[in-house]
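Hi R.,

As promised on Friday, here is the backbone we talked about, encoded as C-alpha cells. Could you run it through your design pipeline when you get a chance and send me back a sequence?
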C-alpha cells in the first residue's frame, strides 16, 4: 500500500479534518483514494439499532464516496472512549487481524493509489488488551502523519509523540499543525520553530489553504 497512517497527539486535534483534506487533495491530483477509519467511538444510533460513524462517513465522502460496507469502517461504538474501553462496554471486541485484512483488501480491490488509515485518539490508545494504535500502524507499514494542535501545549505533545513513533520503528512522514480560525498564526509559527529546533522532519501548518498538504502526496503511479 502507498499512503499514510494518521494519528494524533490527543483526541480532537483535527485528525479527521486533516485526513479528509488529504483525501480531497489526492483525488484532485488524480489518485484513487481509499480512506479508512477502522474503529470509531462516540457514535450515535442510526436506523435498525446500528450506529453511524461520522468521521468514517466524512473520510469516505472525501475519498469520492465509493466505499461500501466494511470499507467505510468496521467498528462503531456509542461510548466516547478508547476503542478497547468502548468495545468492552458494548460487550464486544476488535479483531486486529480483520482490521489489517480489510485495509489491505480494500486498497487492493479498488486499485487504490493512495490509502489513508486514520487511528482513533493518539498513538498509545488501546485497541485490544495487547495492542494499541502503534501496533496497527506497525502492521500496516504505512508512514505516519502526526496531527497536533497549533496552539498552547503542542510543543511538548508533538515531540513526545514523534519520539514514541520513531522509537516504535515507524517513519514519521510529517507533523501537521492543525490551525483553527481562533489560533494566532504568529503563535503557530513560533511553535513550529521551537519543534524544528528539536526535530529535523517535515512540519506543515494546515490553515485555510488545503494545498499545504500537497507535498505529502506522491504523484499517481
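Update: got your reply. Pasting your designed sequence below so it's all in one thread:
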Amino acid at each position: 500500500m502507498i499512503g499514510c497512517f494518521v494519528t494524533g497527539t490527543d483526541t480532537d486535534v483535527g485528525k479527521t479534518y486533516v485526513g479528509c483534506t488529504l483525501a480531497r487533495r489526492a483525488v484532485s491530483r488524480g489518485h484513487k483514494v481509499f480512506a479508512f477509519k477502522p474503529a470509531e467511538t462516540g457514535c450515535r444510533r442510526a436506523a435498525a439499532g446500528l450506529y453511524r460513524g461520522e468521521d468514517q462517513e466524512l473520510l469516505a465522502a472525501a475519498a469520492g464516496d465509493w466505499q461500501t460496507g466494511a470499507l467505510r469502517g468496521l467498528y462503531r461504538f456509542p461510548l466516547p472512549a478508547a476503542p478497547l474501553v468502548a468495545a468492552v462496554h458494548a460487550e464486544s471486541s476488535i479483531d486486529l487481524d480483520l482490521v489489517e485484512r480489510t485495509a489491505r483488501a480494500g486498497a487492493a480491490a479498488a486499485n487504490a493509489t493512495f490509502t489513508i488509515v486514520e487511528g482513533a485518539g493518539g498513538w498509545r490508545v488501546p485497541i485490544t488488551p495487547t495492542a494499541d494504535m502503534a501496533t496497527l500502524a506497525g502492521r500496516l507499514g504505512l508512514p505516519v502523519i502526526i496531527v497536533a494542535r497549533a496552539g498552547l501545549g503542542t510543543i511538548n505533545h508533538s515531540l513526545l509523540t514523534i519520539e514514541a513513533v520513531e522509537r516504535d520503528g515507524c517513519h514519521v512522514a510529517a507533523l501537521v499543525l492543525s490551525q483553527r480560525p481562533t489560533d494566532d498564526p504568529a503563535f503557530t509559527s513560533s511553535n513550529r520553530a521551537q519543534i524544528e529546533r528539536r526535530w529535523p522532519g517535515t512540519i506543515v501548518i494546515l490553515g485555510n489553504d488545503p494545498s499545504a498538504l500537497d507535498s505529502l502526496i506522491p504523484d499517481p503511479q
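One thing I noticed while checking it: The domain at 3-216 is CATH 3.40.50.300 (Rossmann fold).

Thanks again,
M.
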